[in-house]
């Protein structure tokens, strides 16, 4: 089970943020071209960073927590990490960036009414 731990954490991240697309209308998956242009530079930068860091011995990946499958010397889980984490962040940003109204009526604060003068000239509120 340890060998699947990295994949399970990534799957949990996707599962937790999936309702943001399905229920709260993040519309990230519905715009694949925009998603690709957003993720491509992030993936490229961090893959290069990881390749350089592992080549220099700054860090490594435990075979205990990865499946052993690699691509260009990096575990497949690491490649997925560079897709999943920015995707989850993007889903969260798309929903929360629209403010409390995106979370539904219960999360939207009630407007504050201005005090109105009463018939005697005083204020009531």
UniProtKB/TrEMBL annotation:
Annotated Low complexity bias: 102-111
Q: Does the keyword NAD apply?
A: no
Q: Name one Pfam family in it.
A: Lycopene_cyc
Where is it mainly found? membrane
Q: Where are the transmembrane segments?
A: 6-24, 36-59, 79-96
An annotated GO cellular component of this protein is: membrane
The terms under GO molecular function for this entry are:
intramolecular lyase activity; lycopene beta cyclase activity
Please report the stretch or stretches of sequence annotated as the Lycopene cyclase domain. Answer: 6-96
One BP term from GO = carotenoid biosynthetic process
Where in or outside the cell it occurs: the entry states:
Membrane
Per the record, the domain of life is Bacteria
Q: Which UniProt keywords apply?
A: Carotenoid biosynthesis, Isomerase, Membrane, Transmembrane, Transmembrane helix
Chain residue ranges for the region called Disordered:
102-125
Q: How does it sit in the membrane?
A: Multi-pass membrane protein
Name the pathway.
Carotenoid biosynthesis
Q: In the UniProt record, does the keyword Transmembrane helix occur? A: yes
For this entry, the protein name equals Lycopene cyclase domain-containing protein
> To which species is this protein native?
Catellatospora bangladeshensis
Name the lineage: Bacteria, Bacillati, Actinomycetota, Actinomycetes, Micromonosporales
């Amino acid at each position: 089970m340890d060998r699947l731990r990295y994949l399970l954490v990534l799957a949990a991240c996707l599962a937790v943020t999936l309702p943001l697309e399905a229920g709260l209308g993040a519309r990230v998956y519905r715009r694949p071209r925009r998603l690709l242009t957003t993720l491509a530079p992030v993936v490229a930068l961090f893959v290069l960073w990881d390749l350089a860091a592992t080549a220099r011995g700054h860090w490594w990946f435990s075979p205990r927590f990865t499946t052993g499958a690699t691509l260009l010397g990096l575990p497949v889980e690491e490649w997925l990490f560079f897709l999943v984490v920015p995707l989850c962040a993007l889903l969260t940003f798309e929903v929360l960036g629209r403010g409390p109204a995106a979370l539904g009526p219960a999360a939207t604060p009630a407007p504050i009414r201005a005090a109105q003068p009463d018939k005697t000239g005083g204020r009531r509120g």
